[in-house]
DNA sequence: GCAGCGTTTTCACTGGATGGAAGGGTTCTC
DNA sequence: GAGAACCCTTCCATCCAGTGAAAACGCTGC
């Protein structure tokens, strides 16, 4: 198959990729920076030929996984968002946590964040950002490194050994001159976090921000998520904030225990329509 | 599995369905009531043979669109949730609206809801439910009929004529004896909503709840979403609440105008890792 | 009018996707 | 603790859905 040299001039398409993989690659082509793409962009990013991208995109649009705007550009569709809302680690967790996050926000008017671990990074599941609170770089659905933030440190401290090795093995990115990048020092910090039950990240992402985070457990006692409060660094008293955050974390642990065990999260709403999708009609 | 009757006998598989459609059918198999499924359930609901479901599911798990829990059951994965977070009508809208929803909640401590139209139904994009507020049946990512709720009425009032005809053409479900089910009457109500700039649904879904909703516009002046405040029906003064909701709606309109036009929603976060997914490695 | 894009359709070919069957595992029931 | 009832996984020959090149089409700006 390989004509001529290695990886010769854009061999159009690598064969052997399944249709499923191609479709998923198309979805992965969208980013927060460019949430709308033309067909050509989509094809290039997913490494597909134009006709193929065109056909798959048409199917995705028909189902609702993608939408087209007035200019014909593609974007992620609401239907996909609906389905994704069923992700237990996403919205499920979020719903259980929300009242507690609200409380935390209302009491402090600072940034409140909820995150889970995905591989060797964290993903923000929810955040409440006060307009007057210290600015943070997070976005719901966004990823971040584990070694610098409060939630990241909590999740790293309770991650499987293999994940810890992976993170500590690679060079740790320095965001500010307070970022801990020495694996030895970081291991000590992680031990402290396990011992104390909360983490503090002081100026490790931006110098003006300090975050205090605490772990959320699942019914088996595994750490599945973390909450944090991000405040202005000067004058902040981590030890005073910790109980607040820990209490919220305990509350969320308790709440998600219920939702996870007892099936019905709420009375099932009256189905307005037999939920028959146009596509599934006979 | 009712053996014997019609429909059973599982005619194995209807051919001609594309791989993409099958994969999407698998995603659509998950519901809020059953967010975790065994492979067999998945195969049945998506009308696929077991081996096929098994193979597709394996690919979806590898990519992160699905996850498997300890018992081997499948559920929607966080990676899909991440991608879906890029849906402009989902999280994009939500992020722009959140501060205003927060304000609305903090002032009233009642239920705050944000919804968009999808076909002939509404989809809730965000909701803030006070623990002490009147109970409501909504769920983020959940659907509902348009003709009874505040947000539904606003979105229906500003929907294309074809959608209005579709909704008004079918029998309108009665949730309570205050639900308006007469097309004529509903048309008059929709006209009032367009004239006044807000909608009131008084006891039309549950007798104890009243909601006041207002429209959110896109830069072209189209109504793309609606906000509502749901309060206890007895003693509520819709006319007094309307300005509050309308102000929030105006604020969201203004905020989403900015995010839609000016590309950068926020300073792009420092990319912790080149965002290289395991699957895309060389 | 022309050039430069991006989109859509057509067509013959081919290899990934397919389901039946069979093997192996786990969790209930009696 | 034997049996039943599911559920999951792998194998293999068949075949049709998916494929890219090429060309037609549509739009926008100059």
Task: Offer a quick outline of the entry.
With 282 residues, the first copy, chain A, is α+β, with helices and mostly antiparallel strands. Chain A has 9 helices and 9 strands.
How would you characterize the overall build of this protein?
Two copies of one chain form a homodimer. The first copy, chain A, has about 280 residues and is an alpha+beta fold. In chain A, about 40% of the residues lie in helices and about 20% in strands. Chain A is built from nine helices and nine strands. A six-stranded antiparallel β-sheet of chain A has the order 6-5-4-9-8-7. A three-stranded antiparallel β-sheet of chain A has the order 1-3-2. Chain B binds a DNA duplex (30 and 30 nucleotides) through helix 3.
């Amino acid at each position: 198959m390989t004509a001529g040299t290695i990886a010769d001039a854009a061999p159009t398409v690598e064969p052997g990729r399944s249709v499923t993989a191609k479709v998923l690659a198309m979805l992965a082509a969208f980013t927060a920076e460019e949430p709308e793409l033309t067909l050509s962009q989509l094809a290039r990013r997913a490494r597909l030929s134009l006709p193929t991208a065109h056909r798959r995109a048409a199917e995705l649009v028909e189902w609702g996984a993608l939408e087209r705007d007035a200019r014909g550009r593609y974007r992620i569709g609401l239907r996909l968002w609906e389905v994704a809302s069923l992700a237990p680690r996403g919205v499920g967790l979020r719903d259980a946590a929300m009242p507690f996050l609200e409380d935390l926000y209302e009491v402090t008017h600072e940034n409140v964040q909820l995150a889970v671990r995905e591989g060797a990074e964290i993903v923000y599941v929810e955040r409440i950002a006060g307009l007057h609170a210290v600015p943070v770089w997070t976005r719901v659905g966004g990823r971040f490194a584990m070694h610098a933030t409060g939630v990241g440190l909590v999740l790293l401290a309770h991650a499987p050994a293999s994940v810890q090795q992976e993170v500590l093995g690679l060079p740790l990115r320095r965001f500010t001159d307070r970022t801990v990048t020495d694996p030895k020092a970081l291991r000590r910090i992680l031990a402290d976090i396990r011992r104390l039950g909360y983490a503090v990240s002081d100026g490790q992402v931006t110098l003006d921000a300090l975050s205090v985070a605490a772990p959320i457990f699942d019914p088996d006692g595994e750490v599945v998520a973390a909450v944090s409060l991000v405040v202005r660094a000067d004058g902040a008293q981590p030890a005073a904030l910790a109980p607040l955050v820990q209490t919220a974390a305990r509350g969320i642990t308790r709440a998600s225990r219920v939702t996870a065990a007892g099936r019905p999260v709420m009375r099932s709403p009256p189905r307005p329509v037999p939920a028959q999708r146009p596509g599934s009609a006979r």
